[in-house]
Design brief:
single chain, alpha/beta, 5-stranded parallel sheet, 20% strand, elongated
Length: 224
């Protein structure tokens, strides 16, 4: 599995990563809520192991933002607190399971496998995104149209994933620049328009209809 550990206790995070890596998992660590949300948008993971107490954003806030953005990524929340109120808060926010630290890596692995099975997923298929005949797998960093693989650059893939994730809704250029490029300002170039043109060519190379709608003064939308 491709896993994201979100934990500000560096020693604990590194130890857990080492144990899970020994069990043949690909593990990334994020030490804050915002960095975790950025990692999910840019890379895609099979599951998240999320500490409940984090700087900047709490674990509950991270889960709430993930779910509000439409992510179905399985989330296993960890906490040093075992009180019912903390568990209920995490699960109500959208976490799928809750463990009290320290939890053995073998148990964490078993719980994550159970969460994937509950969704009918296998490792590498988590968070599969679909819109019409377009399928995007952030975990595998692959995309298909009408079951044919698309050869996309990193930016083209990020742009398509964002459009598919919000299919049926218009995304402004500023939103795309922040989510795909990672800028918190709008550069004085037409980088979004240029990437959309390149992406359109690849999506329509087989003679298929252009699935991207442009609304002048608003932005872009992928037909749902």
């Amino acid at each position: 599995m491709k896993l994201l550990i979100v934990e500000d206790d560096v020693e604990y995070a590194v130890a857990l990563k080492a144990e899970l890596a020994q069990r043949r998992h690909d593990v990334t660590i994020a030490d804050t809520g915002p960095s975790a949300l950025t990692a999910v948008e840019r890379e895609g993971f099979d599951a998240m192991i999320l500490d409940s107490m984090l700087p900047q954003l709490t674990g509950v806030a991270v889960v709430e933002r993930l779910r509000a953005a439409g992510h179905s990524l399985p989330v296993l929340m960890l906490s040093a607190l075992g009180r019912s109120a903390e568990k209920i808060g995490g699960l109500t926010a959208g976490a799928d399971d809750y463990c009290v630290k320290p939890t053995p890596a073998a148990e964490i692995e078993a719980r994550l496998n159970a969460l994937l099975r509950a969704r009918g997923w296998t490792a590498g298929e988590a968070d599969m995104l679909r819109a019409g005949d377009i399928v995007v797998s952030p975990g595998q960093h692959r995309a298909w149209r009408a079951e044919q693989p698309l050869d996309l650059t990193r930016l083209e893939f990020g742009l398509l994933a964002e459009l598919v994730r919000h299919a049926g809704s218009f995304l402004t250029r500023a939103m795309l620049i922040e989510r795909v490029w990672g800028y918190d300002f709008e550069p004085g170039t037409n980088i979004v328009d240029a990437q959309v043109r390149l992406l359109r060519r690849k999506l329509t190379a087989g003679g298929d209809e252009d699935p991207i709608v442009t609304k002048r003064g608003v932005g872009y939308m992928l037909r749902a």
